[in-house]
Amino acid sequence: MVKPFVPQLVYVEPSALEYPLGQELASKFDKMGIEIRETTSHNQIRNLPGDNDFQKYRMAKSTLVVGVRKTLKFDTSKPSAEFAIPFATGCMGHCHYCYLQTTMGSKPYIRTYVNIDDIFEAADQYMKERAPEITRFEASCTSDIAGIDHLTHTLKKAIEYFGESELGQLRFVTKFAHIDHLLDAKHNGRTRFRFSMNDDYIIKNFEPGTSRQAERIEAARKVGEAGYPLGFIIAPIYLHDGWKEGYKEMFEKLESALPSSSTKDLTFELIQHRFTKPAKNVIEKNYPMTKLELDETKRKWKWGRYGIGKYVYTDQEQEDIKDTLGRYIQTYFPHAKMEYFT
């Protein structure tokens, strides 16, 4: 069982101590006996312990920076929401394939932002501008926010904030099962609680430091019973020997665990495994022993949204993935919605 995240090292921006949450977190980590250092900026952590890049990378993944989010212009988000809402950046998981490894580059440490009222105020402006349309906010584009929320409770506050809003909805996804403190949040059905789910082979081989499949399924059951709208992101869909059986088992376990009430409004998002040239270089540097298949000759080249090309599965493989997983969804969750396959 993966234990809830506890940082080995904490950095605090002085300006973060001007906010109640900043003071609360500094006091909490001090009482836990964690070393606290000062930093002028949450984007400038330069003196991480470690004798080499390998050690420093692992230390960064155990480091939490308490800071103030100055940029409150929200990014246009993923296919599942209108805007990304920034409560945290970075993740303590060690998923070999993760795109954050390239987007975060030399800053793989975890950042949590304490000026949440400013963030809510900015969200409010976006909702007003789009009224009377519903505006959906994605809280996990640059982090696994639920993985640190047992320490910060920022996500819980956000769930309750959107629970009271008329035109806003919140979405996030997690690979962590430490979500019991979120079960009594007053969500009013306005937060879709999604789990990143995969077959056993992929979680065991490529997702170290995250909750295991059985733990995620059990957490999803609890979330369903708490009345949240529920969803699953199956990602990355990765072809390996026995992948069809592996995914079938995963769907069977989900179907037997979930309360029937949560299967009426269930969503699935399917994302095939892909990689870029820069990602391959970073992955092989950070995880030199990985079994991840990164052979460009076996893939199809595809232009990305931002002009960066990526390697995806061949058209025939993609059809096979879509047909196979689409059939499983239809069989085990006939009322579910498949939001997209990419």
TrEMBL record:
Enzyme Commission numbers on file: 4.1.99.14
GO MF, any single term: lyase activity
Top-level lineage group: Bacteria
Membrane-spanning ranges: none
Enzyme's top EC category: lyase
InterPro entries membership: rSAM (IPR007197), SPL (IPR049539), SPL_Bacilli (IPR034560), SPL_firmicutes (IPR023897)
Alphabetically ordered keywords of this record: Lyase
Protein name: Spore photoproduct lyase
